């Protein structure tokens, strides 16, 4: 529900796709240093993989980090290969268990990815390095949860197997011009948020953008539950630290408020079939004055919105939101130049590279908002820090159980189609309890 690197399905068999991905992983692609890597393990070659799209905010930051690394390591050749997300996701275990492993690689966070490889012994324990280089001080407790794993490969443990450089979270986007046109005050708490929803509806405007056939509707439901949740509740649900009551006050408030807002017309019921891109179009076309969604939409909105003034802020109805540290750098156990890998990661955590991330519209973890010149980017980072500093990042609702994304989408669509709130909670409860029972 969080990964925005979605791809259209292709007419290719799964076996053929895996074979092609494996071949692509083994074969060298673009090499920034030029030539082939023939001097592995001698401290003279850094092999680096990442999957960020060329000219994107993260790719531009990593390009700058590579240039900085070359300045500080003039005798070291950098062999960079740009992979696809799918290539690394599908074949990481096989490649990292071979002599083709890179020295440092971008990898997806989570129990089924970084946690699984750590449990299998394929990733280097970076705990002592994180402390020596001060990464553990630059990254907050809540943002580092997905970088740390226990012996079972479950996040939130005491050993660092990844180092994130940026964060991601769900926040509010406001059409400032529509608020001004209708003389509606931008909200600062839940009461004023609901008042704004009512005022827009009275003016004949459906206030909230939404998409039921994608992650946004489920994000809304979880965000409402978080309005009544504390740290222990999040830990119980996400980290299996205690029993979860799916008919307790948190979930009950979420489904009942969601239904109430549907009945009042704050959400549009017909949005049940929309995708996330349709939701953003509602906001960009000024059909909906409020969108609550991930910061991954921020860059596109910056480009697409040219005819009205807009702003971002923390969602005012909760002190917690969906979010986490971003995907991170990992160092394979079989990496041949681990010291060079650590040096590169350290550069990505430097003020210079973190500032580039911020100016490009991303959410750096280790730079102060007031050092960012772009005002919209500064606003975004400030909103993230509001949650990060207060242990307000509560991860994503589909993380706790395999295949749970489809369950969440079906449940929220059921709610939007008129399903009974507590029956919807039972839909969410069954697969969660089935999976957690296997862990006992």
TrEMBL record:
Keyword annotations from UniProtKB, A to Z: Signal
InterPro entries cross-referenced by the UniProt entry: Bact_solute-bd_prot1, SBP, TAT_signal
Tree of life domain: Bacteria
Residues annotated as signal peptide: 1-31
Membrane spanning stretches: none
SUPFAM superfamilies linked to this entry: Periplasmic binding protein-like II (SSF53850)
Family annotation (PANTHER family): ARABINOSE-BINDING PROTEIN-RELATED, DIACETYLCHITOBIOSE BINDING PROTEIN DASA
The protein's name in its UniProt record: Extracellular solute-binding protein
């Amino acid at each position: 529900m969080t990964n925005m690197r979605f791809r259209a399905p292709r007419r290719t068999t799964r076996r053929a796709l895996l074979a092609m991905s494996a071949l692509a992983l083994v074969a060298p692609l673009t090499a920034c240093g030029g030539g082939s890597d023939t001097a592995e393990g001698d401290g003279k070659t850094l092999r680096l993989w990442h999957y960020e799209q060329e000219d994107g905010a993260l790719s531009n930051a990593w390009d700058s980090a590579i240039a900085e690394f070359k300045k500080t390591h003039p005798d070291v050749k950098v062999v960079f290969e740009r992979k696809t997300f799918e290539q690394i996701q599908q074949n990481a275990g096989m490649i990292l268990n071979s002599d083709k492993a890179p020295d440092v690689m971008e990898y997806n966070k989570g129990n089924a990815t970084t946690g699984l490889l750590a449990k299998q012994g394929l990733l280097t324990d970076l705990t002592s390095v994180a402390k020596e280089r001060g990464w553990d001080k630059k990254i907050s407790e809540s943002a580092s949860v997905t970088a740390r794993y226990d012996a079972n490969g479950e996040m939130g443990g005491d050993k660092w197997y990844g180092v994130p450089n940026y964060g991601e979270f769900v926040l509010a986007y406001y059409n400032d011009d529509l608020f001004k046109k209708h003389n509606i005050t931008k909200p600062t708490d839940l009461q004023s948020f609901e008042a704004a929803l009512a005022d827009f509806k009275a003016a004949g405007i459906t206030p909230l953008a939404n998409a039921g056939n994608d992650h946004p509707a489920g994000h809304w439901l979880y965000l409402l539950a978080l309005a009544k949740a504390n740290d222990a509740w999040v830990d119980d649900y996400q980290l299996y630290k205690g029993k979860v009551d799916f008919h307790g006050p948190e979930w009950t408030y979420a489904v009942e408020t969601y239904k109430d807002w549907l009945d009042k017309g704050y959400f549009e019921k017909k949005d049940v079939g929309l995708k996330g891109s349709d939701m953003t179009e509602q906001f960009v076309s000024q059909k909906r004055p409020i969108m609550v969604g991930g910061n991954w939409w921020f860059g596109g909105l910056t480009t697409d919105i040219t005819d009205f003034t807009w702003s971002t802020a923390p969602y005012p109805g909760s002190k917690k939101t969906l979010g986490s540290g971003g995907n991170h750098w990992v160092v394979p156990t079989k990496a041949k130049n681990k010291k060079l890998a650590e040096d590169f990661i350290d550069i990505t955590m430097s003020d210079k590279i973190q500032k580039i991330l911020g100016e490009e519209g991303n959410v750096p973890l280790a730079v102060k908002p007031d050092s960012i010149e772009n005002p919209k980017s500064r606003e975004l980072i400030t909103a993230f820090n509001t949650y990060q500093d207060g242990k307000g990042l509560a991860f994503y609702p589909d993380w706790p159980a395999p295949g749970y994304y489809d369950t969440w989408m079906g449940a929220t669509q059921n709610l939007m189609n008129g399903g009974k709130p507590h029956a919807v909670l039972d839909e969410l409860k069954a697969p969660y309890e089935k999976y957690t029972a296997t862990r006992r």
